[in-house]
Amino acid sequence: MDFSFSEEQTLLQESVQRFIEKDYAFDQRQKLIKTDDGFDRGNWSTFAELGWLGLPFSEEAGGYGGGAIETMIIMEEFGKGLVVEPYLSSVLLAGKCIEYGGNADQIENTLAEVIAGTKLGAFAFVEPQARFNLADTVTTAIQKGDGYTLNGFKGVVLGGPSADFFIIPARTAGAQRDVDGITLFLVDSNTAGLSQRDYATVDGLRASELTIDNVSVSDAAVVGTVNNGYELMERVIDMGIVAVSAEAVGAMEVLYKTTVEYCKTREQFGQPIGKFQVLQHRMVDMFVEHEQTKSLLYMAAMRLDEEYGVQARKAVSGLKVQVAKGGTFVGQNAVQLHGGMGMTDELSIGFFVKRLMIINSLFGDADYHQQLFAALVNTPASSAAA
What we know:
By secondary structure, the chain is of the alpha+beta class. It has eleven helices and ten strands. The protein has three domains: 114 residues, Butyryl-Coa Dehydrogenase, subunit A, domain 1; 106 residues, Butyryl-CoA Dehydrogenase, subunit A, domain 2 (Beta Barrel); 148 residues, Butyryl-CoA Dehydrogenase, subunit A, domain 3 (Up-down Bundle), CATH 1.20.140.
């Protein structure tokens, strides 16, 4: 199996690397998270100009025809710089919902503005009682005339504070945990009855809690088909998992390389601590965890680009388990080998570890995906998802 990048993919990787190295120093990143937006809208415009916002979308949807591999390349480099711009929430979650299920108007207008960088979105799929079960939805959408009235609550809406619109799943039929009966709606952030509480997350990003109180939308706000939103959500979340896993691989690379360099200069007992064999073994183990995670990332991205079905979902769940295992190991050992200063704000180490901790719980933790993987093993390969 050939894992080498094409010439175009290599150029993409190099362009993102140059941006991170020249325009995204750690000190600059720390200043950005303290601003009102929590990110730089100038950087966002640069992303649009470079084509990064349109890259994950098909040409039919107005994008540049990239896939999971190209998304992986961008997010891995973003992980090395701890990029705080809402690429995941606006492009890969909200944008992908519209690409996969949006009507002509939503694609030609809302998605086009996302690609142009003039509009930001967020995917409000988390509910407090659901944990990681996407089907567990108590937010309701009751049909009234030629529209719907939505009521409910959504938590941990990534990118919510800066969003111009939300993709909101709501139950239009069935019981609370039924797979059938979920419908997705595109709702403008200024819609009457929609209120939000914004807050900063532990890794420096921004999120919101949405209270949905008698929010009225028209039939045209439906994304996908009525009662069949679960498959669309599942497909978008799997793309999100590959994206944050790539980000984790980038963060893990920075952590193990930074740790190796530190151990070459930190002296104890008259010699660099990197000369102690037990610490050398520890650093090799960090490298191995990174490489194992990267290998599973490549496989999952390739599976998603081939065909979305059982095999792709298995690869994604297996990847998420390894990301949790490898990320925890690399993060903990980076801190231990740096000593107490590893978790101080003086060094970047602690911020990478915090991001890995958040990624571990995003879209399902290791225990959840291990159970999901086991269930998928017994699912016929012909049973494709959306």
